[in-house]
Specification:
Length: about 280
């Protein structure tokens, strides 16, 4: 079994091809969020963690599952499958598409997953992705672009009712909560502050957050804060002290320590190295 690499905090999407022998296996190590899975050959039985009945995914069938790693599956015969794993950070374009499905979304238990038969277009797409992976054509940008392409192909080739059921893990009752978190997390000083903005108790907010994001709000906020700060250090002309103040660090020293912990270098070294890279590429 091929094991996914540990993803960087700001990595958007991971595609993996698995060839599994009979027995119990774990999928989605080092990932949290959502996975779209298609079986190319064989079959897998998902062993749910929430008390639901295990469900079977057969050849050329597709499903979407939540990952709170690792996800256990049982293989009864040699199986080849492909997984597209991504965080629950839905970007504006995706949110607009998914929002159109909300009127057709019927509430169901979280452990009930819709299995759809892959049509010819989706089969060809997954086989092409598997070919890319086998040839080592992997990059963060390619993987995220192909995830977006998969969404577009699904919307183009399946009915609204099918899509509403298939995308339930993304558009269920938690969609508005996810949108609230994405829109407000950067202005919050900490988890307690974000809970106050949401008009929830801290314990209630944490419980709801873990339910919809499959990780603690502290870990999620830290990861996203690091992503945004990294982008600003490397691309913005704003001074480092101003960036520290903008993101609610009490002192520049605390900001410096945060960067060393998240990126293994100080913010000044990070900006300097990025500047040197740009100068080299301009030669």
């Amino acid at each position: 079994m091929q094991k996914p690499e540990s993803s960087k905090p700001w990595r958007k999407c991971v595609w993996k091809s698995y060839r599994l022998e009979t027995g119990e296996h774990q999928l989605g190590e080092n990932m949290q969020g959502i996975a779209i899975v298609m079986v190319i050959k064989g079959a897998i039985r998902f062993l749910t963690k929430t008390g639901g009945v295990p469900f079977l995914l057969n050849e050329y069938e597709v499903c979407m599952v939540s990952i709170a790693p690792p996800y256990k599956v049982m293989i009864q015969k040699e199986t080849h499958l492909l997984m597209c794993m991504f965080h629950l950070d839905i970007f504006p374009f995706d949110r607009d598409m998914l929002a159109t499905l909300m009127p057709f979304c019927k509430k169901r238990e979280e452990h009930d997953y819709l299995v759809i038969k892959a049509n010819e277009t989706i089969q060809s797409f997954f086989l092409l992705m598997d070919n890319y992976i086998q040839k080592g054509l992997e990059s963060d940008l390619l993987f995220d672009v192909k995830r977006q392409e998969l969404f577009l192909l699904l919307f183009a080739t399946y009915s609204t009712t099918e899509l509403a059921s298939f995308f339930y893990p993304l558009i269920g009752e938690g969609l508005r909560f996810k949108e609230f978190v994405i829109s407000n997390h950067i202005k919050a000083k900490n988890v307690q502050h974000l809970a106050q903005i949401a008009n929830l108790s801290t314990s209630g907010f944490i419980k709801k957050f873990v339910r919809y994001f499959n990780e603690s709000p502290y870990q999620w906020m830290l990861r996203h804060k690091a992503k945004i700060i990294l982008e600003e250090i490397c691309t913005s002309p704003t001074s480092l002290k101003e960036i520290a103040y903008k993101y609610n660090f009490s002192t520049y020293q605390h900001f410096r320590e945060f960067c060393k912990m998240q990126f293994d270098v100080t913010p000044s070294k990070l900006r300097e190295s990025k500047k040197e890279e740009k100068e080299t590429s301009d030669l």
